[in-house]
Amino acid sequence: MVMRIILCLVLFALFAPVAMAQPSANLNIDLSERSIDITTGFNGAKIVVYGTRRGEGDIAMIIRGPEQSIVVRRKSRVLGVWMNSQSLRFNDVPGFYALALSRPAESVAPLSVLRRYNIGLDALVFETDDGNDAEKIDTFREALIRTQQMKGLFPMEPGPVNFVDNDFFKVEFKLPANVPAGIYRVDTFILRDGVVTDTRSAELKVAQNGFSAEIFLFAHNQSLAYAVIAILMALFFGWGAHSLLRRD
């Protein structure tokens, strides 16, 4: 009897993690495309995410990536000249971030829950080298978000979650032409009574392709040569334009 109990415990320890790792049927998602190619003339792309849920609950969906370090600088007037006087580095800033909600964020969950899962621009928390000055961090964080919004990389308003019926929904995300290459994550959450009850994730690859990819790789791997060529081309075309104007 004792040996049977021990054997059952051993089998549970071995197979329970596998059982818990199996996805539940409460939430499932799929992407219309798993990869996007940035080619010459690329002017953006649209990603459609389809999903099903079982039961009631709000839907929140995020697409973000790839993460990068960004230095935010503040200028001030020094002896009559505007100079960079302060700076702060944020280490895990997504190159693109967009959100879709089935209801307004304040109705879905409290801010503490939204921050835990990075749901919404107000809930985004970035790591920084200077963690002592909270006021400075907030000021520079707001400046960073405004800059990304001006570039079209952080849409100002959440998109809608469109329900085809009670269980089937879809979300459309628009990637701008200047979206960075890399791996993106699509995270989807079900929230009930302000608590996340289920989540699913999928990956999207955005990559340079064709002639633009060759230029991109050359610019990164041979930055000095690329800079010299760019300067020579600018001088050549400038000289050509000047010559044409003089002839006229």
Brief rundown of the structure:
The protein is α+β, with helices and mostly antiparallel strands. The chain has helices at residues 2-21, 105-108, 111-116, 134-150, 211-221, 223-247, and strands at 27-31, 35-38, 45-53, 58-78, 81-101, 159-160, 162-163, 168-175, 182-192, 195-208. It folds into 2 domains: 21-208, Immunoglobulin-like; 210-242, no CATH class.
Q: Main traits of this protein?
A:
6 helices, alpha+beta, 2 domains, about 250 residues, four-stranded antiparallel beta sheet, about 40% strand, disordered N terminus
What is the CATH T-level topology of the largest domain? Immunoglobulin-like
For the record, what is the CATH homologous superfamily label of the largest domain? Answer: Macroglobulin (MG2) domain
Structural class determined from secondary elements: alpha+beta
Query: What is the percent of helical residues?
Result: 25-40%
Distance between the termini: 104 Å
How many helix segments? 6
Order of strands across the widest beta sheet?
Answer: 2-10-9-4-5-6
Q: Per CATH, which architecture of the largest domain?
A: Sandwich
SSE succession: HEEEEEHHHEEEEEHH
State the total count of DSSP E strands.
10
Number of domains: 2
So what's the overall shape?
A: globular
Low-confidence stretches: 1-23
Mean pLDDT: 80
In what range is the share of β-strand residues?
Answer: 35-45%
What does this structure look like?
The termini are far apart. α5 crosses α6. The strands form two sheets. This protein has a six-stranded mixed sheet. It folds into two domains: 21-208, Immunoglobulin-like (Sandwich); 210-242, no CATH class. β7 (162-163) and β8 (168-175) form a beta hairpin. With 248 residues, the protein is of the alpha+beta class. Mean pLDDT is 80; it is low at 1-23. It is built from six helices and ten strands, in the order αβββββαααβββββαα. The chain is globular. The longest helix has 25 residues, at 223-247.
